[in-house]
Specification:
This protein is mainly α. The protein contains 10 helices and 4 strands. The radius of gyration is 23 Å and the shape is elongated.
Length: 257
């Protein structure tokens, strides 16, 4: 088959799909694969960081221990199949990928409802809304480009829907990153200021006394205090400390200390 004319000409490009022969991946599918790889890297990083105290947030609930390991491994396995299937343009990857992104949307919606309010929820809110928008965009695009997976050969207008999808995907990524940085910096400054105060307050006292000091605090301040305490005693068994944290997010951070 002759090579497709370059995208810059504005003409249509022929692409192979659905078999074991060599294929030309459309740039839009490459963008989806890159998105999946980024998600996979994040999951792997959190998995490695918490290998000694496994914990994961699943539908807004904190899961710990072997259950957390199993969930993370299953997610990574499914995501690996999604990436492989998209790269090979397999027919089964079409439904699997849509199912994966639907799972991301549903997980984010439930988490938004469950996670307790506060500044940290604003940061999580942006992240989950970003996931919903990005995954929703990917699902919409895949539904309109079903032929990429179910036809042996096809043509696509490289100046049309594909570029619109990639530009919008990149735009959403930029907006989410900027908002996350702005909120993240504010969150970091606020919590660091509080953590420094609590470090001075807890240092030099027994774990039991430190627990009492944190217990008398309220709301987010109480949770931050226990996270600080877990960091001060991270060589010991911190589960007793982290179990006293009310917020699912801060409990997750406590176990990762």
């Amino acid at each position: 088959m002759k090579k497709g004319i370059k995208a810059c000409t504005g003409k249509k490009e022929s692409v192979n799909s659905g078999g074991s022969n060599s294929k030309t991946l459309p740039p839009s599918i490459k963008a989806i694969i890159a998105y999946c790889i980024i998600i996979g890297v994040v999951y792997i990083a959190y998995f490695i960081i918490g290998i000694y105290a496994p914990a994961t947030l699943f539908f807004g609930q904190l899961v710990q221990g072997y259950a957390a390991i199993i969930i993370d491994l299953l997610i990574l396995i499914v995501l690996s199949f999604v990436i492989y299937g998209l790269f090979k343009m397999e027919k089964w990857a079409y439904k699997l990928a849509i199912g994966w992104f639907l799972f991301g949307i549903f997980n984010s919606l439930i988490s938004l409802i469950v996670i307790s309010p506060g500044f940290i929820r604003d940061l999580v809110f942006v992240s989950f809304i970003g996931v919903i928008l990005l995954d929703g965009l990917v699902i919409w695009y895949m539904l309109t480009r079903k032929e990429y997976f179910y036809q042996k050969t096809f043509t696509h207008d490289v100046e049309g829907k594909d570029k619109f999808f990639m530009y919008l995907l990149a735009f959403l990524w930029i907006i989410i990153i900027v908002l996350s940085i702005v909120l993240g910096v504010g969150f970091y400054k606020d919590t660091t200021k509080k953590a420094d105060l609590y470090i001075n307050e807890l240092r030099g006292v027994t774990k039991l006394h430190a627990t009492v000091i944190c217990d008398v605090k309220e709301g987010e301040d109480r949770d931050i205090c226990f996270v600080v305490l877990a960091n001060l005693y991270k060589k010991d068994d911190i589960k007793f400390v982290c179990d006293r944290v009310e917020s699912q997010f801060y409990k997750f951070m406590c176990l990762k200390a």
